[in-house]
Amino acid sequence: MNLINRAKNILLTPKTEWVLVSGESATLSSLLTTYVLPLAVIPAVAAFLSTLFWTGRLFGFNYALFSAISTYVSAVIAFVVTSLLVDLLAPNFQSQKEIGGSSQLVAYSATAVWVASILGIVPGLGWLGSLAGFVYTVYLMYLGLTPVKKTPEDQRVVYLLIIFVVYVVLSMLLTWLIMGVVFAGILGVAATSLF
Predict the structure, then answer these.
(1) Of 150, 44, 165, the residue nearest 105 (C-alpha)
(2) How far is CA 5 from the centre of its chain?
(3) How many angstroms separate the CA atoms of 23 and 84, rounded?
(4) Which of 41, 71, 79, 177 could pair covalently with 47 via S-S, beta carbons 3.0-4.6 A apart?
(5) Distances (CA, A) of 63 to 25, 147, 185
(6) Other C-beta atoms within 10 Å of 102: how many?
(7) What's phi and psi for 94, nearest 5 deg?
(8) pLDDT class for 89, splitting at 50, 70, 90?
């Protein structure tokens, strides 16, 4: 299935789409190249535009570009690490340990947060887009646990909470780490240009 149809279907008819997903085979690398890398561009572009428009005068074009790059890189790393952790934790929740299914669950659930991030371009709506995206991502993941990972009903909530906490914390840490390195680099370049 192509990227646009999969993204649309996972957002609009998730129950039906998860059943289709459960019958497909995928690998972490195939999902990364055909789904995650293209969709992770959305929050990166939103970060670039919002940074450029709203703080660009203060930090400049390079900061906006680095903000976009850090957003993109952190989304990709968070996908890979979260997929691996979902798979690693699966037996603890009587779920199927299979990296392809774990990657499908993480990638397709994250569609909501990636698409909603476009609201970050509009002042005052970024936080709303993030909140709506995260809430819907949790819902999508909840719906996908049983068909994709074969998670028993009584294990879904706890497994979901652990996955989500890992994803959010990891995404935040990666973004802060990358932005810290980038910001330190910008300050270093600015300081050396004074001499």
Answers:
(1) 150
(2) 18
(3) 20
(4) 71
(5) 40, 42, 10
(6) 27
(7) 50, 35
(8) very high
pLDDT at residue 192 tops 60:
no
Give 36's pLDDT tier (boundaries 50, 70, 90). Answer: very high
Q: Contact 112/140 with Cβ under 8 angstroms?
A: yes
30's tokens? 């195939």
pLDDT band of residue 177 (cuts 50, 70, 90) is: confident
For 27, phi then psi, to 5°, come to: -120, 160
- Type of residue numbered 24: E
Tokens of 38: 């293209």
Q: Which two tokens stand for residue 182?
A: 């980038």
| Residue in the block written with tokens 């706890």 | 158
Residue range 120-145: mean pLDDT, rounded: 89
